[in-house]
Amino acid sequence: MQPSEMSKERVTYTELKLPYSKKQKNKRHPTPKKREFPWRGVAIILGIICFFLLLAITGLGYMCKGYDPCQEKWFCCGNNCYYFSKEEKTWAESKMSYQDLCSSRTKVYDKQDQEFSADYT
To answer: Which residues of the chain have pLDDT under 50?
Structure first.
């Protein structure tokens, strides 16, 4: 091409508008938003449940603190309850006395129980 021919040419710009382009689609036919699972609501509900469980556990802890599973006049050592009698009785009288208390006589088998019973006899 010669310089004289270039000056005669015109440049034209245009914008193509296609029927299904993304720009046109959003303007004419807005797509409905996808329905998402309500994670925020579930998280709030679970948080509230955890809070009340924590309160319940704390309350039960205070109620059971110092809880003695043994009856009155009985002493606790580990998982066992002991009743110490200062009355002198024969073997048979002693057996009847413990049967009345719905219990049985015991033998001391380990050092912990021996030290515990020594404190009360």
So the answer is: 24-25
Domain residue spans of the chain: 75-120
The answer for residues whose C-beta is within 8 angstroms of residue 117's C-beta and 6 or more apart is 82, 84, 108
Global pTM value:
0.36
Res 28: pLDDT: 57
Specify whether the CB–CB gap between 112 and 78 falls below 8 A: yes
Gap between the Cα atoms of 97 and 94, Å rounded = 5
